[in-house]
Amino acid sequence: xxxxxxxxxxxxxxxxxxxxxxxxxxxxxxxxxxxxxxxxxxxxxxxxxxxxxxxxxxxxxxxxxxxxxxxxxxxxxxxxxxxxxxxxxxxxxxxxxxxxxxxxxxxxxxxxxxxxxxxxxxxxxxxxxxxxxxxxxxxxxxxxxxxxxxxxxxxxxxxxxxxxxxxxxxxxxxxxxxxxxxxxxxxxxxxxxxxxxxxxxxxxxxxxxxxxxxxxxxxxxxxxxxxxxxxxxxxxxxxxxxxxxxxxxxxxxxxxxxxxxxxxxxxxxxxxxxxxxxxxxxxxxxxxxxxxxxxxxxxxxxxxxxxxxxxxxxxxxxxxxxxxxxxxxxxxxxxxxxxxxxxxxxxxxxxxxxxxxxxxxxxxxxxxxxxxxxxxxxxxxxxxxxxxxxxxxxxxxxxxxxxxxxxxxxxxxxxxxxxxxxxxxxxxxxxxxxxxxxxxxxxxxxxxxxxxxxxxxxxxxx
Length: 462
Known about the structure:
Blueprint: E1 2-7, E2 12-19, H1 21-38, H2 51-81, E3 86-92, E4 108-116, E5 129-136, H3 139-153, E6 156-158, E7 167-174, E8 190-194, H4 202-207, E9 216-220, H5 221-224, H6 229-236, E10 249-260, H7 267-274, H8 283-317, H9 324-334, H10 344-368, H11 374-391, H12 401-410, H13 414-436, E11 438-445, H14 446-459
Helix pairs in contact: 1-2, 3-8, 9-10, 10-13, 11-12, 11-13
């Protein structure tokens, strides 16, 4: 057996594996003997067919399988032995020819292509500066949060004329192509509810304000539901496949108008919001408590934004070259349902950025000896699940027994454990970067903060 590495450039290489009969004959013979003992050949009792007949029936297929197994195992062993830092896995070569003519030859050559990871040094220091936002909470944010909470705790009451924030209940009927008369056999008297302020189309929103019970209005169906097929399908009780056949114009007959009422600011309300004995007793105390909660929320928001900025910093300071053509081939070969010749160039850009970031994180972890211990993974999984539950309105403490039991059940899932380990390494790597770079404290209003974030996301296509 002869194994050779052929370097094409710093990022691409090929490995050839030459096999002679001495390398594979013993394994082929062993497999043939196994087949002879188990083969069911017509005209012979099981296991009694002559060796020559077994060779004739199965010899080429067995040889092909044995050769492929030896070549694959040899390739993997070579990568480990030579400590090659590769991306993805070796794939059949397009740079060098394989020679696997089992019909006419006894010596064979397998050729594999490899994508090599770029070699680089970390390039972050105290010269790299990021803004550390101190988001200031003003009366406007406090008022908005309080009003939202009062709406949640308030009720609904009938109102005569619809306003922007009201819930308008109506029965929808599909109109004909001229938009004048009900369509025979179309959607008829389908009850739906809409809130004008949630509608993005200005004309449709305006048409739904100032209505009374019994009024009718002609609306564009897509505009009414912000062109969201999922919402339209659910509201009308129709499959998405059938939406294309609907006419655009619908008539809505108002059946009911509801307006939210705000919960009264009193001790009962404060107690309901905060529970226990530690609840604010006055409106002033309540506003101060809301302010503290918002300050904690925006402090966390600012920390998350720093992590986002660090991600961009790492990519901008380490514009790593990659074996792009190899990686495109590897993605199409290993994930054919997601990648093909038509979409690979477009979808590869995102994969490329993610891989560059991963390489930088791995470099930070290696240089700083960052690891994810079993305890780290367990705690990260708790944070992950607590966040999931919070999305459904469940605030669960990290020390909660239910949360611990839930996470422990997932610890047998190797893929999940690997995902949590990655999260730990990323978090620790980012925390390490924070000790290397400089920060400039910057006070900013909530409004200006989101202007900055939105501008950044627009510029980066996020």
